């Protein structure tokens, strides 16, 4: 893998926001993660804060190893669709299969991403 802006230089990280590969010269490090530009650094920082709040809210990752933003995002959407499904279920008095199956799909995605990241050791 090579740097997005310097094709001749080997990349050492991937921007957490736009997923571009970055070399040592382009790499920006922050507590939230790697990024490629000031703009991305800001987005990564904001996303990180949002995820931290969401994780606290849903108790995701409490006492566990840190999960990646991608996994947290899928879990977040999964929970969201399930919540929506349950809301529709209560309102209509019939089980909302659409919301539940989309929510489940996101949970499956989260699991899939989680395990593939574990295998490859790459976290986005
Ligand atoms: Zn970027
Ligand atoms: Zn570079």
Question: Can you put this structure into words, describing what you see?
Answer:
The protein is mainly α and about 120 residues long. It folds into two domains: about 1-40, no CATH class; about 60-120. The chain is built from three helices and four strands; from the N terminus they run E-E-E-E-H-H-H. The longest helix is centred in the middle third of the chain and has 24 residues, at about 70-90. The two termini are about 15 Å apart. About 25% of the residues are buried. The mean pLDDT is about 90. The structure holds zinc ion (2 copies). One zinc ion binds near residues 18, 20 and 40.
Essential attributes:
single chain, 124 residues, mainly alpha, 2 domains, two-stranded antiparallel sheet, elongated, binds zinc ion
Counting DSSP E segments of at least 2 residues, the number of strands comes to 4
Proportion of strand residues: 5-15%
Count of alpha/pi helices: 3
The gross shape turns out to be elongated
What structural class do you assign from the helix and strand content?
mainly alpha
């Amino acid at each position: 893998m090579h740097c997005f802006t310097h094709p001749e230089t080997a990349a050492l990280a991937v921007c957490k926001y736009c997923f571009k590969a970055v070399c040592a010269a382009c790499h920006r490090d922050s507590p939230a993660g790697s990024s490629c530009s000031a703009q991305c650094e800001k987005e990564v920082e904001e996303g990180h804060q949002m995820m931290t709040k969401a994780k606290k809210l849903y108790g995701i990752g409490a006492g566990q190893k840190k999960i990646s933003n991608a996994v947290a995002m899928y879990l977040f959407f999964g929970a969201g669709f399930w919540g929506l499904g349950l809301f529709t279920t209560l309102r209509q008095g019939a089980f909302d299969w659409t919301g539940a199956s989309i929510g489940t799909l996101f949970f499956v995605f989260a699991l899939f991403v989680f395990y593939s990241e574990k295998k490859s050791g790459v976290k986005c």
